[in-house]
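[job 0412] stage=fold_complex status=start
inputs:
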Amino acid sequence: MMMKTTKRLSRLFSISLLAAATLLTACSKSGGKGGAISGAARDTTLVIGMLGDADYLNPVIGASLTSSEISGLIYPGLLQGEFDTKTGLLNYLALEKRLRPSSGPDEKSPKGALAKTWTMSPDHRSITYILRDDAKWADGQPITSRDFKFTYKLYGNPVIASPRQQFLAELIGADKGAVDFDRAIETPNDTTLVFHFYKPVPEHLALFHTSLTPLPEHLWKNVKSAEFRESKLNQQPVGAGPYRLAAWNKQQTLTLSSSATCNLPKPGNIRRIIYRVIPDYTVRLAQLQTGDVDVVENVKPEDFAAVQKANKNVDIKTIGLRVYDYVGWQNIDGDHYNSTGKVRPHPLFGDPAVRRALTLAIDRQSIIDGYLGEYGVLAKTDISPSLKWAYDDSIKPYSYDPAQAVKLLEAAGWMPGPDGIRQKNGRKFSFVLYTNAGNARRNYACTIIQQNLREIGIDCKIEMQESNVFFQNLQERKLGAWMAGWSIGLEIDPLDVWGSDLKKSRFNFPGFINPRIDQLCELAKNKMRTEEARPYWIEYQKILHEQQPITFLYWIRETQGFSKRIQGAKLNISGTYYNIDDWTLKPSIAP
Amino acid sequence: MLRYILKRLLIAVPLIFGVLTLTFFIIRLAPGDPAAFFIQPGISPNVAEQIRQQYGLNDPLPVQYVKWLGNVLHGDFGRSFSRAQQPVIEVIAEALPVTMTIAVLTLVANFAFGIIIGVISAVKQNSFLDRFLTVTALFFYSMPEFWLALMMIILFALKWPLFPVSGLNEIGAESYGAFGFVMDRIWHLALPVTVLSINGSAGIARYVRGSMLEVIRQDYIRTARAKGLSERVVILKHALRNALLPVITLMGSSLPFIFSGALFIEVIFAFPGMGRVTVEAIFARDYPLIIANTFVSGVMIVFGNLLADVLYAVVDPRIKL
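[job 0412] stage=fold_complex status=done
writing structure:
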């Protein structure tokens, strides 16, 4: 009897739990006003697969690349940025003015810019923008110069902690510790916006730093700065760009719909863009194959054949060259520096001749051939071949030459020991090469490097570390040798990476000290025209090539999987979604 | 019985509190911190420091601990660092139902498959079928779940596109109506639940087989057969009921395992559940979220074990709590 009831009870229990759970999740859907996707709707909907969700759809605090890309479609810009693939220069366009003539195939329409024109004062201490008077926020309110001044105060607010604070570094008062907004930014009327700098600023830099995205003042003015990040307005951004946020199902999908009222430059061509969060790479790839997703970024070269065999409608598009891998060598004795604050050369890697030997000993081309194939380019320094205006063609990359490497090592006193490992003054040339776990390309490269070095009598062990751990150890100079990568900015500004003041240069992990590099960066920065800095960058590349503070391995052409439905996509170094609002979708043939 | 349950719950309070305190200090000892994300080229140099200041990460550890304790006692687990300052409770309220759905469905599938396979194995003891089922069960029991999941995707979503690859629903499933929506959800859950339960049911099958073999040898089963009852009635009515007694208790103790399995499954199938929240929180060093997740799984484990013990007492009158 007892048994019967228990059994019935447990059956009832499990059924009701199941029903409850299914219903619960069915009800927990939020903001499902996205509408449906049927066969016909598919022709007006683009689906992008992404690794992680956006953090804030707010240009002031959004930190991830995904957030910036989506924000860029929702919000308007003061200027329209354009990347000139012919020269590698960034260009800025206003409605009736451009910094320089466009020469490349990636020309942008200036109609997206809020500024009609600008004037740089003769002393280069101020820039005056005239704004268009027909631009409106998505809620119908006009966009005025006051919105800009209001938003710049938010960018500079230490409580809000915007990742883009350094854009304000030249404004009046910044040299004294805090920007004096009332003197630095003037708004004499709704369509005039003036920025004042405390020092002469080159025009391209002024344009770059004064064109941060505005927020609508009338919506945000009552939000306290301490509550800025938590504000519900972050969930319903009001912009003026070609798209609006239609639905945001956190960690699942983010839906944008074309904004019919947009005149900056026009409503997006594709009616709906859905970003799907798919954390696992293999699964993202599978979705690209089945056609559920139209774009997947960073498809690994080894997967191309399989994807294209499975789905003829997938194209691989490449952009670059922006990302490179390198082997870092600790130029200074890190432990000694940490304990005394004094600099002395690292016992193994302190000598430039030894570092050159290490580069000569590593068969970089075979890493490229074995893993990246046509999507890898031998690297010489950290100035990308895509930045043609600054890139030095005349430098010959070090070839793979173990014999020469051995000569250099022996000249520096590293002689073979009894066990085949080279030694000098009783110290073996033996070290650990660290890298972050979970990167197949780097694992592959490390193995080849280990093999190459063993052949010339250097013992190198490999150790993988969790990314957080690895990064912290790098910052604390605990690693003698490591393998990592950088993604470069489009404006050349390497002081953070190579500056001699190790306390100030946050990313000078190798501890490379060369005062001439600091001078060259300074000289280049003070040139009023970008192109005129070329001689300085040429010399800079020569120094890095000779000194080999690190072994530059290869530039990586990023490879993005695209459905052939997408037409009119232009990709370049400044992004996969460079002109996404101009893309169109090829209609599927009705069965 | 009620007194026993209350006593167990009271003991659980300091236990969970101890686990949380331990977690609080351990994650702060791990390298990296929530502000480390803001140390990268292109982000202003002072941002990381401002963020630390705001989150109170610059205070000495004991001060941070006391502050945190005060908040938790008020029931406030804080706001997530890595998820746009969303209150942690909200993050979990969104994620928990997803994981619970998977867990409950898996539990049901586990027992359904496990019992069927176990009974067949026991009744046909030492036959080819028994050997075959045993070996197969062992094979799946020792398969890592993430590998199994990827294989299933390759087979049933790519090679034969029968099931969707990822996500909880089709895009635009809201328009299918309530019934269509639920059916679509079930269709999306089929693969992941199968993967999770293959592993669990293999274990339960072994257990059922053992317990079944023990019961079949009992005198009252011989009596039942002597009465001339059909084999089916003997096995299903008389033997199975008693053989299932110890199995029922597994229900409680397998809950935590299903939760840990959900970790892999959610990342692979892109479900926004607790597993994924936990993994991402750990990588981002999102302290408040890690602690809250620990709290939830701690409560689950305590509850699961309590459930197991209570069920035992309910189904087996020989046991007194």
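[job 0412] summary: Residues 1-36 of chain A have pLDDT under 50 and may be disordered.
[job 0412] exit 0
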